[in-house]
Amino acid sequence: MRSASFIVGIALLGSITAASTAEQPAKVEPVKTEQPKTEPIKLSLRDFVWKCNFDGGTELGGYDEADSRFFLYTHGNASGDVTIPADGEYTITVKASCVMADKQLAKFKLTVGDTVVAKEHACTTEDPKEYVLTAKLKQGKQKLAVEFLNDVYKDGEYDLNLYLNAITVAPKK
Asked: Residue 13 and residue 3: Cα distance in Å, rounded?
């Protein structure tokens, strides 16, 4: 015959098992929502405006339809509008090329609105190359400007020129 404490123990064990197998409320997991992905903004260089640093240089910069690029043959800047979707850190990719002159490659300054992204950035090759720069930018429509800094020219010998092949702006990953 079993003892009373043994029977009470079995009864207690049964009630614990029944309680642990009873339906428990489901755990609620937070729903993971992805932030909307912002596609890179590809600026239309065709819409950029040329401003020469001196009078009479209106033909020394502009968009070349045949080569699909913006040319800067002298000191000046090319600018266009960009709308930044939200405050944050962005990468600005400038695909640029140049014609070397007097052993120099082109240098440019890049600004977005009031933000100086690159005070002086040097091309590292004459061939088209993507130069990736980062900056904290404010939301809204702003001017993006590329200024050609180091034009050199000697008639019949050399002429340093800068070409903008593409510009994109994207949230930093």
From this structure: 16
Residue 154 — φ and ψ, nearest 5°? -140, 115
What are 2's two structure tokens?
A: 């079993």
Over the stretch 46-94, which tens digit does the pLDDT of each residue have?
999 999 999 999 999 999 999 999 999 999 999 999 999 999 999 999 9
Alpha-carbon distances, residue 105 vs 27, 45, 62, 93, 142 (angstroms): 63, 22, 20, 18, 28
DSSP 3-state of 155: coil
CA geometry: angle at 92 spanning 86 and 95, to 5°? Answer: 150
- Six-digit token string for 75: 């000191």
- 């900056």: which residue's tokens? 135
> 3-class DSSP state for residue 162?
strand
Q: What values do phi and psi take at 88, rounded to 5?
A: 160, -175
How far is CA 125 from each of CA 70, 90, 96, 162, rounded to the nearest angstrom?
A: 17, 24, 9, 11
Confirm whether pTM is higher than 0.90.
Answer: no
- Residues 6 or more apart from 13 whose CB is under 8 A from it? none
Helix H or strand E encompassing 142: strand 140-148
